[in-house]
Amino acid sequence: MNSIVIGRYLPGHSLWHKLDARSKILSTSLFVFSCFMINSWIFMAILVLLEYLVILLTKIPIGYFVKSLKPIFFFILLTFFLQVLFNHQGEILFSLGPIQIYDEGLSLGFFMSVRLIIVVVISTLLTLTTRPSDLTLALESLFKPLGKIGFPVAEIALMISIALRFIPTLFEETQKILKAQASRGVDISEGKFKEKVVQLTSLLVPLFILSFKRADELANAMEVRGYVPGRLRTSINQLSWRISDTVLLLICIGLFIGAIIF
Amino acid sequence: MQITFESVNHVYNARTPMERRALYDIEFDIPSGQFVAIIGHTGSGKSTLIQHMNGLLKPSSGVIRIGEKVIQSTEKNKSLKEIRQHVGLVFQFPEYQLFEETIEKDIMFGPLNYGVSIDEARKRAYDVIQMVGLDAEMLGKSPFNLSGGQMRRVAIAGILAMNPDILVLDEPTAGLDPQGQYEIMEMFNLLNRQYGKTIVLVTHDMDLVARYADEVLVMHQGVLALKGSPEDVFKQIDELKRCGINFPIPAQNYHTFANRLSLSIDKLPLTTEEFVDQVESVLCGRG
Questions:
Q1: Is residue A180, in this structure, part of any structural domain at all?
Q2: Of A168, A223, B123, B184, which sits with the fewest C-beta atoms within 10 Å of its C-beta?
Q3: Does A147 touch chain B (CB under 8 A)?
Q4: Are residues A33 and A112 in the same domain?
Q5: How far apart are CA B284 and CA B280, in angstroms?
Q6: Which candidate, B232, B134, B222, places its Cα nearest to that of B180?
Q7: Would you say the pTM of this structure is higher than 0.95?
Q8: What residues of chain B lie within 8 A of the CB of A212, using their CB?
Q9: Which pLDDT belongs to residue B17?
């Protein structure tokens, strides 16, 4: 259960942790956009270096980021090999029967892999260092202008925060049910396909029932406390924009403009 | 079937920043056919401990013996599945593990996973549903239309149908009405006395401990703090207070009674009968 990094928050006291969630979201987005626009290795090196500095600043062990890459490891490999095998530009490096590897294909393969890795790492960094409640608050505040054209900002923000809130809970429950069914002889790793389907239902049915029950309880709890959708409300956490936020944002805007020009 | 723990340690998330030790050098053995209660404050390691008994968790170091079988940190999952057939574990609120369309199918699920024939599994379902105090006519119904207490019984029946030699129960009575609690505990008692099943009961209810347990294990912060018969364990008042453990109601009552009359306490009564006996002897002694 603890191998999951996505959506997880690690409390900390670094400068990066204390930044306003809005500036973190905006900067991260700009960073990601820049990353997808550039195609020079020098610029990429700058981005990698910047990212590495931020990681050092947060004092989060590198292991977390390695773990966050696990789910997309296959995807990275696929991108790499597709480029290496099917990009026939530049000069042939070597060929083996039908397989021909070109230098540009190889370099582009590496480039795209690095690009994917730093995008995933920077997003992980955002969720690892920002409280989920701050994230939704920031999203709500950033999307506020859309409310003017009838976009249900508050409702969407609430949905996101509830979803985020219940990821760990669902995970815990999955573990619990898995263990309970393992005690009844379920072993997901063995058996024929038909048996596997039954074993999977033994997990999914209880999980659905529990989720509906939870949703029901949550709805009741909200109703009891007088929740009205869309009503203007205050939050226990307030976002505060400081100079450091402006500085970060300016740096990232600079990066972004740089990425467009070069 | 006998359970032996030999200097068992467990560390959650070893070698990560979230590393947390949950069990420290646990050593005990439970002879076949005993009724053992495990008590301890929330977070004392009870749940971690019992999950080692059927191999859901493997020890970080140390050895667990279940009958002839051995569980070590290097154990393969295949042999663990075999152990689970002999050690039935009933989790807290087991009603959440129900999933089949009918009660019968749900009870048969465990036995079928262990290669029992369909006819045999059906026969077992018919037997165990009555054992847990439900009507055999209910077998064809959906488990999701039952009351909470009935669902609990069906879930327990699902474990009993696997015919385990050892039953490990994590607070099986939590949230049941008093009558339901009594019936379920009497059933476990019967399984113990009549069918010779070894029973390991995790509970916060000291009255159950006093009434049913042959042996008590007290857990405190991942350490096995005390072990002995209920009489011996409940004698160690200071140690129990340190572990944050209450006394059975009769013992609490007697404590108040003795204080009121300024009597010295040499033995706390654990059950109502003992309480009455002791009060009687005090009153008669005074004449």
A1: yes
A2: A223
A3: no
A4: yes
A5: 6
A6: B134
A7: no
A8: none
A9: 67
